[in-house]
Write a structure and sequence with these properties.
3 domains; globular; Thrombin, subunit H; four-stranded antiparallel β-sheet; 12% helix; 3 helices
Length: 207
């Protein structure tokens, strides 16, 4: 999916991982040789670049403004069927703990997403990019109405870093933290169940 007229493309890391050659097919059937600019396995995002000017590109939209129930379109090439469009709604926001990536804050949608949709756009009804289709929950390998997309605001930050430096640098504190529970609050003699418990400080960390 082209995101700039200068040929930068965003896709999923698992789409290009291990690739020795990248060929990009445009909507007008032109095939261009691509080069991997950078990847971020933690969010399952990657940036590829092709040579070109004034290429048609998507417009980012603010994913913080979307709401559950909004209509969306998923675009991709499921099972090799190019330029397939499916429609659905936003089923949930901020979906995590689904075991797809290290950093998870997904848009969940019931728009049909299948193998081949990965890295394609999830757009609002104005055609603006609100997410990057990434994965599905399925017992059959096909769509069962539970698809996940990386929000555009997260993707923009990662993509910008990959274009500028080829990698993503993250700060870290070096501690493991767990939520305060009634049992822990009682054990520590706390009157109120507030705050968090530092369970471990990692050796050699900033902490």
């Amino acid at each position: 999916m082209l995101i700039t007229p200068r040929g930068y493309i965003v896709t999923n890391n698992h789409v290009v991982e291990g690739a020795t050659e990248v060929i990009v097919t445009l909507s007008d059937k032109r095939e261009l040789k691509g080069a991997i600019v950078g990847t971020d396995p933690q969010t399952d995002l990657a940036v590829v670049v092709v040579k070109g000017n004034d290429l048609p590109s998507m417009q980012w939209s603010d994913s913080d403004k979307i709401e559950v129930g909004d209509l969306v379109l998923a675009i991709g090439s499921p099972f090799g069927l190019t330029q397939t469009v499916t429609m659905g709604i936003i089923s949930a926001l901020g979906r995590g703990n689904v075991g797809i990536a290290e950093y998870e804050d997904f848009i969940q949608t019931d728009a049909a997403i299948n193998p081949g949709n990965s890295g394609g756009p999830l757009v609002n009804m104005d055609g603006d990019l609100i997410g990057i289709n990434t994965a599905i929950f399925s017992r059959t390998g096909g769509s069962q109405g539970i698809g996940f997309a990386i929000p555009s605001n997260i993707a923009q930050h990662i993509v910008s870093s990959l274009i500028q430096t080829g990698s993503v640098v993250r700060g870290w504190l070096g501690v493991s933290i767990q939520d305060m529970t009634p049992a822990l609050a009682e054990a520590f003699g706390l009157q109120e169940m507030k705050g968090a418990l530092i369970g471990q400080v990692l050796a050699g960390s900033p902490a």
